Structure to design on (573 residues):
């Protein structure tokens, strides 16, 4: 997609009023007295959350909540972690413009902050996001736009550095874009669809600025972004957790925005599964890669967004109705994912021995998966102790590929049980060369090759084997791995991955992705100075330095949603 460039420099000096319909103004509250000094964390301990709670590990004493934020309605589910916030005004120890307390940071950190600030996009003088990349050596296409999913790690970085206003501006601006009419050809999209991206256009003649949003009508393949709404809800909770400011989430406009997103996801139809049916290219993997159906990335984000919404919705009549629907869906979704998407050595052996054409309620092979469809690589890839959520499960089809984002979000949202979370980390350690190699982290494993690549990708020249989304290595995933490591009490894994990335990222000018089986080569079409590669690194560093930041993006397990798994899992071996 090619669109006119936004004049960011001129927009910084604009003093005109926002031309969009204004939202109600609200006062900033001083929540500084609500927090107590967090205890120090001995992060060398390698114990899963079933042995030691996350609050004991890192975040310290739960703060007292304001009367505005406290609700004693028993129907609302609050987890232990969801009472814990990073203290307002707490800065990362890195030597950045907002944090002068130096803990001898890596030289890359200052360079990363400088690059991240250069990526800021302004609308009427206010920062509203970060563009995808600042690579002037390549055609812009849509890399000069603000993507919802791409901004998420940038938003976390600014929240961790005590700069929440940028995140608030982004949340409000994308919320306004949600209300726009959305049409592709003659078909109108659902009211709750969030944009994939937007850009600021500056008219130097009239001296004004306008926003242009893309809801999929300009995207490759013309696919609407299913994940944008989920990232928006998760970011809203991260903002609330980080600042202690509940007034943003309580705005009628934010409440309505959440309900519209949830209405799209919770609507009843012909599906017999609690998972969301999606088209190829509807998420980070935005090209044809065989993820159509029920991809793990969307299901994990869906689960996380539902849990966040449950904590953000107000207890009015509309809110309570949605909360009841959410609780029912969470129970069904957690059982389905933990039962049918989970794969370990025992379950792999069970599938290998499946009978087919079973017809009854007692069927073991419920999806009629053919054992001969098991790929040869999975038998060698599966360690004795370890497991993961596979890429997709649908009638007569199981996609056994490993997808990093979905598995990390499953850990952070507690879609994965503590035992499953431990098994995922065991798998990463056991298959370090395959999943991390010389640049973290493989977006999926293994790559599609030869005839399979031709059939599934349609001979996509960008998704050749071990490139881009077909087994490419994406530095942005570093923050997700780090968060998962901190949550499972295994930060040494994250520290090792960060050291691998630091050997090359700055020298290579922050590429979008790397190619090759080990991630040795800068991607053949990778943009340089890719913003979420920069932000992902900063978030990973700050989270290791101050594990209390994990509270923004992690939710503890709800024991009420823990099903009785009848299968033996890898950790019982």
């Amino acid at each position: 997609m090619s669109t006119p460039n936004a004049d960011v420099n001129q927009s910084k000096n604009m003093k005109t009023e926002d031309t969009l319909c204004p939202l109600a103004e609200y006062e900033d509250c001083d929540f500084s007295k609500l927090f107590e000094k967090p205890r120090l964390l001995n992060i060398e301990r390698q114990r899963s959350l079933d042995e030691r709670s996350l609050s004991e590990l890192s975040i310290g004493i739960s703060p007292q909540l304001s009367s505005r934020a406290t609700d004693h309605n028993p129907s609302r589910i609050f987890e232990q972690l969801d009472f814990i916030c990073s203290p307002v005004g707490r800065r990362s120890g890195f030597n950045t413009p907002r944090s002068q307390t130096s803990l001898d940071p890596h030289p890359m950190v200052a360079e990363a902050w400088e690059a991240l600030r250069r990526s800021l996009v302004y609308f009427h003088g206010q920062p509203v996001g970060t563009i995808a990349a600042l690579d002037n050596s390549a055609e812009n296409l849509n890399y000069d736009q603000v993507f919802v999913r791409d901004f998420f790690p940038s938003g976390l970085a600014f929240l961790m550095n005590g700069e929440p206003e940028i995140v608030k501006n982004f949340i409000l601006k994308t919320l306004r874009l949600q209300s726009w009419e959305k049409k592709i050809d003659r078909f109108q999209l659902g009211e709750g669809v969030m944009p994939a991206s937007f850009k600021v256009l500056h008219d130097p003649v009239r001296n004004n600025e306008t926003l242009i949003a893309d809801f999929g009508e300009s995207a490759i393949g013309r696919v609407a972004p299913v994940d944008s709404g989920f990232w928006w809800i998760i970011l809203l909770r991260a903002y609330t957790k980080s600042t202690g400011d509940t007034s943003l989430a309580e705005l009628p406009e934010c409440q309505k925005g959440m309900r519209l997103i949830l209405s799209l996801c919770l609507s009843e139809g012909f599906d017999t599964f609690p998972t969301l049916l999606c088209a190829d290219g509807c998420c980070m993997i935005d090209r044809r890669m065989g993820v159509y159906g029920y991809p793990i990335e969307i299901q994990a984000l869906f689960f996380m967004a539902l849990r966040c919404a449950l904590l953000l919705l107000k207890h009015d009549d509309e809110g309570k109705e949605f909360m009841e629907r959410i609780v029912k869906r969470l129970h069904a979704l957690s059982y389905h994912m933990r039962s049918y998407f989970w794969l370990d050595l025992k379950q792999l052996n069970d599938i290998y021995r499946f009978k087919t054409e079973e017809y009854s309620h007692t069927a073991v092979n419920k999806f009629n998966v053919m054992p001969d469809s098991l790929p040869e690589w999975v038998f060698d890839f599966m360690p004795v102790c370890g497991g993961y959520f596979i890429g997709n499960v649908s009638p007569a089809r199981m996609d056994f590929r490993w997808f990093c984002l979905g598995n990390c979000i499953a850990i952070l949202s507690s879609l994965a049980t503590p035992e499953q979370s431990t098994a995922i980390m065991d798998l990463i350690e056991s298959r370090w060369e395959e999943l991390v190699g010389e640049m973290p982290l493989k977006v999926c494993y293994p790559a599609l090759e030869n005839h399979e690549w031709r059939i599934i990708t349609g001979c996509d020249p960008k998704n050749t084997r071990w490139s881009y989304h077909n087994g490419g290595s994406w530095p942005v995933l570093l923050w997700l791995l780090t968060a998962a490591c901190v949550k499972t009490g295994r930060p040494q894994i994250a520290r090792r991955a960060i050291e691998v990335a630091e050997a090359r990222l700055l020298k290579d000018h922050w590429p979008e992705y790397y190619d090759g089986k080990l991630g040795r080569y800068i991607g053949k079409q990778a943009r340089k100075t890719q913003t979420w590669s920069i932000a992902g690194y900063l978030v990973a560093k700050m989270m290791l330095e101050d594990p209390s930041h994990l509270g923004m993006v992690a939710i503890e397990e709800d024991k009420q949603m823990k099903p009785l798994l009848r299968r033996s899992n890898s950790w019982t071996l």
